[in-house]
């Protein structure tokens, strides 16, 4: 198979797991081509009875990396899966690959047929993980707030990352909590196929990493997997052919609910996975992060920085993510601290104005990036327009003038208050919400 050769079906030839080494191998077939992904969990401490079925779900989630090579018009599972897990599988492909479909003009992906294998018997038992939580760390402000909340709540988290680079390791090193990491390796032929013209694009990677985390928790007698996805992750970027296209679909509340349902239906795991920050806005999280200065020298959310081999340049200063995080933190850190974090003052660079206009909803659509809602950006602008450190910054002045000229006003008090209410729909257990509240009021 070379380039975009026509393939009719993605199939699942099988998988293996070595309980001694903790190495799992997942096989995928596109026509005659069989590709293998390897996930090295390291030697398990225990083998939980639900582990095998969690690996079934991971087998499905990781397949999206291989589906996109040829984007076949059909997916055949071919192995037993609980019937009530199929809504998650369907959403994983049709919605989780929505941006991929949009960018490659593949509308059939939005209605992709999923052919199930035989339905699996219901799990023999229902388990609710009860050990210390496994807290996923991405290196940015969100996961740092979760780490701190879990520690404030005396929940003794274990920190977790898949393929952590120097940036993530440096963030985890600030915390006194123990760390577990996993190595995920794509089939090495992927690069050759991409170079030959295979399809490429965004996949629901958070779904993959989430299931790797759940499996890791089971292998070490740990508690629920705690993610740090906020309320705005559920908001789509645009509508295409009558469907919502969301860059952050696998971070959103519908995806979280689907995966929890699949874990319960297929693996018998209850309350095994949730996002601690789901009820909060990006601005609310930024205000909470501003309470902690110990991460200033290591925090980053810039995707360009994550592609580097080291952590020498943590922010590119020119991408949508850098622009949004700078905007979100500015009202709560002040100029000197924020410029120290980023190494530059983005609000003095008028070449960034068009990017900020996108964030404010003044042009195009919200960028295909992990950024907050347009309404949050407008609230941040209102706070900055009143902030002595920022109100005269060129970007702030230009944006405030344009927003007032377009809509007649900046965000009002009710809109500002709504951004910090912290009551968006969520699936967070009560004792974890209590831990989050211990961080105090955001402003």
UniProtKB/TrEMBL annotation:
Keywords: Cell cycle, Cell division, Cell shape, Cell wall biogenesis/degradation, Isomerase, Peptidoglycan synthesis. This is UDP-N-acetyl-alpha-D-muramoyl-L-alanyl-L-glutamate epimerase. Cell wall formation. Catalyzes epimerization of the terminal L-glutamate in UDP-N-acetyl-alpha-D-muramoyl-L-alanyl-L-glutamate. Its EC number is 5.1.1.23. Pathway: Cell wall biogenesis; peptidoglycan biosynthesis. It is an enzyme of class 5 (isomerase). Belongs to the MurL family. The keyword Disulfide bond does not apply. Residues 298-407 form the MurL C-terminal domain. It catalyses: UDP-N-acetyl-alpha-D-muramoyl-L-alanyl-L-glutamate + ATP + H2O = UDP-N-acetyl-alpha-D-muramoyl-L-alanyl-D-glutamate + AMP + diphosphate + H(+). Signal peptide: none annotated. It comes from Dactylosporangium fulvum. Residues 3-276 form the MurL N-terminal domain.
